[in-house]
């Protein structure tokens, strides 16, 4: 796994349907076993990928921001929750409250997050591939492989390990 981000950029367009079929078939596997494997692969892949080298999630996917996130971030920025909502949030087509622009307004040129300590729950949990989250969010992984090189490589490795 030399340069996983470069490999993902080259290959991601050609495997979308393949990953969708694979993820659908994964639903039939036992959650605990799948989550254990996903945890291992997550650790393996993230030992070789530094999110600061990519930040594609922060430039492509506006995260969902819940009310708890809004209050916490607003306090950190010395804003009222309403002022934060007005300045930074919008309602998307799924009726979720999300950041109003991509790239994220808190993403620095060095790919560091200006509000990392108080970032939204969706950012903290992304890409949902560890801590028993894999099977709970199985429907997201094929789509997230288009945005996150780690998810792409976790699915590629999982395909070699899980008979479907």
Give the mean pLDDT: 91
**What is the percent of helical residues?**
40-55%
Strand order of the largest sheet: 1-2
Distance between the termini: 24 Å
Show unreliable segments.
none
What's the layout of helices and strands?
Blueprint: H1 4-11, H2 16-26, H3 31-46, H4 56-60, H5 67-76, H6 81-88, E1 89-91, E2 97-99, H7 121-125, H8 138-144, H9 149-161
Antiparallel strand pairs: 1-2
Helix pairs in contact: 1-9, 2-8, 3-9, 5-6
Features:
single chain, 2 domains, mainly alpha, 164 residues, 4% strand, 9 helices, two-stranded antiparallel sheet, globular
Your description of this structure?
This protein has helices at 4-11, 16-26, 31-46, 56-60, 67-76, 81-88, 121-125, 138-144, 149-161, and strands at 89-91, 97-99. With 164 residues, the protein is mainly α. It folds into two domains: 18-57 and 127-161, no CATH class; 64-124, no CATH class. A two-stranded antiparallel ribbon has the order 1-2. Strand 1 and strand 2 (97-99) form a beta hairpin. The longest helix is centred in the N-terminal third of the chain and has 16 residues, at 31-46. The chain is globular, with a radius of gyration of 17 Å. The two termini are 24 Å apart.
